[in-house]
Amino acid sequence: MLQYNIRGENIDVTPAIREHIERKVEKVERYFPEGTNATANVNVRTYNNAQTKVEVTIPMKNLTLRAEERHNDLYAAVDLIVDKLERQIRKYKTRVNRKFRDRDGIGVAFAALENEAQQQRIAEEDEEDLTIVRTKQFDLKPMDEEEAVLQMNMLGHNFYVFTDADSNGTNIVYKRKDGTYGLIETS
């Protein structure tokens, strides 16, 4: 069951807007295993040119769904967000099922959605005085490089820290400037 945390910046979130967002975003619940509890964090912003930006983040166990969309119409932006989230879920399930089909069966693959989400963001550093302005803690889930790249792309980040399932070491995958991926292994 999804809980909603809807915030508006430069816009009042009216009951009609709240109802529309909840009605549309709850469509992705059909992809979740029964009994899954998650919070959909929705941020709605309007800009001077009347363009609206809608961001939706749904952190879950082993998976964080995130999408953002800019559009002149708030309601159209919400519709486009739901399409993006559904594509992410289908892509994730297809890859996970393909990976686990021969090993553990489909049931294990879908159960992966119920494990705790791994979230991480880099703390922004002030280049002059190197002040850390934000600290996050998270549990590292054992996975392989392919799954780490998938998680990184779904979060929209440029890097992802994970525990390698084979070596049990902490590794980092990152997106290179040329669009390929890199892997940093620790010893």
UniProtKB/TrEMBL annotation:
<dbReference type="InterPro" id="IPR003489">
    <property type="entry name" value="RHF/RaiA"/>
</dbReference>
<dbReference type="InterPro" id="IPR032528">
    <property type="entry name" value="Ribosom_S30AE_C"/>
</dbReference>
<keyword id="KW-0963">Cytoplasm</keyword>
<protein>
    <recommendedName>
        <fullName>Ribosome hibernation promoting factor</fullName>
    </recommendedName>
</protein>
<comment type="subunit">
    <text>Interacts with 100S ribosomes.</text>
</comment>
<keyword id="KW-0810">Translation regulation</keyword>
<feature type="coiled-coil region">
    <location>
        <begin position="82"/>
        <end position="128"/>
    </location>
</feature>
<comment type="similarity">
    <text>Belongs to the HPF/YfiA ribosome-associated protein family. Long HPF subfamily.</text>
</comment>
<dbReference type="Pfam" id="PF16321">
    <property type="entry name" value="Ribosom_S30AE_C"/>
</dbReference>
<dbReference type="InterPro" id="IPR050574">
    <property type="entry name" value="HPF/YfiA_ribosome-assoc"/>
</dbReference>
<dbReference type="GO" id="GO:0043024">
    <property type="term" value="F:ribosomal small subunit binding"/>
</dbReference>
<keyword id="KW-0175">Coiled coil</keyword>
<dbReference type="InterPro" id="IPR038416">
    <property type="entry name" value="Ribosom_S30AE_C_sf"/>
</dbReference>
<dbReference type="GO" id="GO:0022627">
    <property type="term" value="C:cytosolic small ribosomal subunit"/>
</dbReference>
<dbReference type="GO" id="GO:0045900">
    <property type="term" value="P:negative regulation of translational elongation"/>
</dbReference>
<comment type="function">
    <text>Required for dimerization of active 70S ribosomes into 100S ribosomes in stationary phase; 100S ribosomes are translationally inactive and sometimes present during exponential growth.</text>
</comment>
<dbReference type="InterPro" id="IPR034694">
    <property type="entry name" value="HPF_long/plastid"/>
</dbReference>
<dbReference type="Pfam" id="PF02482">
    <property type="entry name" value="Ribosomal_S30AE"/>
</dbReference>
<dbReference type="InterPro" id="IPR036567">
    <property type="entry name" value="RHF-like"/>
</dbReference>
<feature type="domain" description="Sigma 54 modulation/S30EA ribosomal protein C-terminal">
    <location>
        <begin position="128"/>
        <end position="183"/>
    </location>
</feature>
